[in-house]
Design a protein that fits this description.
Blueprint: H1 3-9, H2 34-57, H3 61-64, E1 86-89, H4 98-103, E2 110-113, E3 121-122, H5 123-128, H6 134-141, H7 155-161, E4 167-168, E5 171-174, E6 177-180, E7 182-185, E8 188-191, E9 196-198, E10 204-206, H8 217-291, H9 302-305, H10 318-341, H11 343-362, H12 369-392, E11 396-402, H13 425-428, E12 433-440, H14 444-447, H15 449-483, H16 496-507, H17 509-535, H18 542-576, H19 580-593, H20 595-628, H21 646-684, H22 697-703
Antiparallel strand pairs: 1-2, 3-4, 5-6, 7-8, 9-10, 11-12
Membrane topology: Multi-pass membrane protein
Organism: Anthoscopus minutus
Function: Choline transporter.
């Protein structure tokens, strides 16, 4: 008994169970994995409740608006700071870097201002001249604390109480914060064309002293300028980008249709091309080997010359080319032997690819189902992001003592700004202030913010995987309806995609949620491992890094395996309507009984679909390149004036690849479904009148068995 016949009858020759009423996806179903379905619904309700609680406690204005030392938002409507949208630092020299300025609190007074300073000035100079130059005082006063207008107060007291900054320097807003207006002149760092400035405390300092406080600002500002130009390019070329993506969609559809006629041709052209290239490599290695004959030093071995950093040295040895020739000959022989022994399975794989193209032709609505999956995932991402922002901005303002003296024992302790001036902290730590530090709280809700964020991420992963599972099960049900139609297309049910979607939602939500849950747990573990790896990146413990690397690798492999099992389990669910574990087990053993066919089909499908993606993205990319570089005379006048032509070009290329991937993912699901149905067909039926095959005539011809009778004992 050969391998194929064994698949028909079973391992010991007994006929496999045959249901004469079986005609594809079962319609008389029952709900599966009900417990998981109930848990899934409860989790969704809890997720909604978490979003509501986060919405009640959170305030996204804390992210949008910068906050001054009093916990007030800069630029917030209907407040005193409505027209003061920028945050100003009294002494930016106390701030280490822009990262600290944005994420933490700098130990200096911070005020909301309407605009950044545009000149150098010190409080000492302004106070000395306020009587005969009141305009300078009025300009400087806008960077002092609100309501301060007492130039007669001594300089020492003003600086001690931080009523006004000791100096102002030319600045420009970045991320709604005032940063020094750096520029480079003849390789020298300057601010407003000056290399020195007075700090208002009797010292003349170099502009380079501001470098740490604004490290990296120039490069980021340059990036911001580039970003604005890129935005402008998108604004004037978006409709041409959409046209390019539409062309990519049409090319993808055309490629799927043509696969019915060209799948075999494309595959065999590639195979014989590889054989020809390897054959040329063998000839070239022999030519080099023969050409080096008699040349002094060419008969040395690799062992004789040892390790050399210049690898060209090895190419002067006959032994090197002989090794290359032997390796290529081995590869050539392996490929030829595989083609000889796997030729029938390759023909089956190509026939299934053609059958997939035919199935999509009858159920064209499946090509647009990825839009539904995309919308579901977009909703999940949006809800997760909004919930994460509201959770991150939950809490009340927390004020801490900011002291200039490092030995102040009250430094970094929480305080109340309303009663702070009546305490003895200001006496023990002169210059200390009760300033806003961050948002937080001591309630039960605030203590578990991190747990809520973790739950938010986990449920997000679960929902995304469920949306993908729903799409796979829906498509599998539709394509299974096509395969198990005895007379195609007459017996294909009406609206197979919508019927499959309804069955998946009505009966198998629990099973799909179960598979998505397993995958989400593994993905969450991977996220945690990545976080730990990021935190421990600077550690010197080699064993810890090695252990983390091994764990990351293992869970990556586990995730890939689970995705493969889940995908095929969903196909079996769509066909038979059984629970997840049973479907996964049956799919796994069915694939193991046809493991060679699985490997061949997988590689042939991957190659053809990858070729299709490259052809679509490359073809549209070449067309876009000629268009945006004005090399198409007919459309030369229509090309918009761009700052960077590569912006819409790369967008079109990447977008075309994603469009092709969306269409081809449907095709890949179709081929996988038809393959499992094909294997089931072989095990259920034998081609006789009582148990006819449901496969197409082309697959039936490839098998070469017109009729098989049950084997007698």
């Amino acid at each position: 008994m050969d391998r194929d016949e064994e698949n028909y009858y079973g391992k010991h020759g007994e006929p496999r169970k045959f249901d004469p009423k079986f005609r594809g996806p079962i319609h008389n179903r029952h709900c599966t994995d009900i417990i998981c379905c109930v848990i899934f619904i409860l989790v969704i309700l809890g997720y909604i409740a978490l979003g509501v609680v986060a919405w009640v406690h959170g305030d996204p204005r804390k992210v949008i608006y910068p906050t001054d030392s009093y916990g007030q938002f800069c630029g917030q409507r209907d407040t005193l700071n409505e027209n003061k949208t920028i945050l100003f630092y009294f002494n930016i020299l106390k701030c280490a870097s822009p990262v600290v300025l944005i994420n933490l609190q700098c130990p200096t007074t911070q005020l909301c201002v309407s605009k950044c300073p545009d000149r150098f000035a010190t409080y000492i100079e302004v106070q000395a001249s306020y009587r005969y130059r009141p305009d300078q005082w009025n300009y400087f006063r806008q960077f002092c604390k609100p309501g301060f207008n007492n130039p007669r107060k001594s300089v020492a007291q003003v600086l001690r109480d931080e009523d006004c900054p000791s100096m102002i320097i030319p600045s420009r807003p970045f991320l709604k914060r005032c940063f020094p207006d750096f520029s480079t002149k003849n390789g020298v760092l300057t601010v407003a064309n000056q290399t020195t400035f007075r700090d208002g405390r009797g010292k003349t300092r170099n502009v380079t002293d501001l470098r740490e406080a604004a490290n990296g600002i120039n490069s980021v500002l340059d990036a911001r300028s580039v970003g604005m130009k890129i935005f402008e390019d998108y604004a004037i070329s978006w409709y041409w980008i959409l046209i390019g993506l539409f062309i990519a969609m049409m090319l993808s559809l055309l490629f799927l249709v043509l696969l019915r006629f060209t799948a075999g041709v494309l595959f065999w052209i590639f195979i014989f091309g590889v054989i020809g290239i390897i054959g040329y490599g063998i000839w070239h290695c022999y030519w080099e080997y023969d050409h080096l004959k008699g040349i002094p030093g060419s008969d040395l071995t690799v062992y004789d010359i040892g390790f050399q950093t210049d690898f060209k040295v090895y190419l002067q040895l006959r032994q090197t080319w002989l090794a290359f020739m032997i390796i290529l000959c081995g590869v050539e022989v392996i490929i030829i032997l595989m083609l000889i022994f796997l030729r029938n399975r390759i023909r089956i794989a190509i026939a299934l690819l053609k059958e997939g193209s035919r199935a999509i032709g009858y159920i064209m609505s499946t090509l647009f189902y990825p839009i539904v999956t995309f919308l579901l995932i977009a909703v999940c991402i949006s809800y997760w992001a909004v919930t994460a922002v509201f959770l991150a901005t939950s809490g009340e303002p927390v004020y801490k003592v900011m002291a200039n003296q490092t030995l102040c024992k009250y430094a970094n302790l929480t305080c109340n700004p309303e009663t702070f001036n009546r305490t003895n902290v200001t006496k023990l730590c002169p210059g200390a202030q009760c300033t806003f530090a961050f948002y937080g709280g001591e309630s039960l809700y605030h203590k578990y913010i991190f747990i809520f964020q973790l739950a938010n991420a986990f449920v997000f992963l679960w929902l995304v995987n469920f949306a993908i599972a729903l799409g796979q099960c829906t498509l599998a049900g539709a394509f299974a309806s096509y395969y198990w139609a005895y007379r195609k297309p007459a017996d294909i049910p009406l609206w197979p995609l919508f019927s499959s979607f309804g069955r998946a939602i009505r009966y198998h939500t629990g099973s799909l949620a179960f598979g998505a849950l397993i995958l989400a747990i593994v993905q969450l573990i991977r996220v945690i491992l990545e976080y730990l790896d990021h935190k421990l990146k600077g550690t010197q413990n080699s064993f810890t890094r090695f252990l983390l690397c091994c764990l990351k690798c293992c869970f990556w492999c586990l995730e890939k395996f689970l995705k493969f099992i889940n995908r095929n389990a969903y196909i079996m669910i769509a066909i038979y309507g059984k629970n997840f574990c049973t479907s996964a087990k049956e799919a796994f053993f069915l694939l193991m009984r046809n493991v060679v066919r699985v490997a061949v089909l997988d590689k042939v499908t991957d190659f053809l679909l990858f070729l299709g993606k490259i052809l679509v993205a490359g073809g549209v990319g070449v067309l876009a390149f000629f268009f945006f570089t004005q090399r198409i005379p007919v459309f030369a006048q229509e090309v918009p004036m761009l700052n960077y032509y590569w912006v819409p070009l790369l967008t079109v290329i990447i977008g075309s690849y994603l469009v092709a991937h969306g269409f081809f993912s449907v095709y890949a699901m179709c081929v996988d479904t038809l393959f499992l149905c094909f294997c089931e067909d072989l095990e259920r039926n034998d081609g006789s009148t009582s148990k006819p095959y449901f496969m197409s005539a082309s697959l039936h011809r490839i098998l070469g068995k017109k009729k098989l009778s049950p084997k007698k004992a």
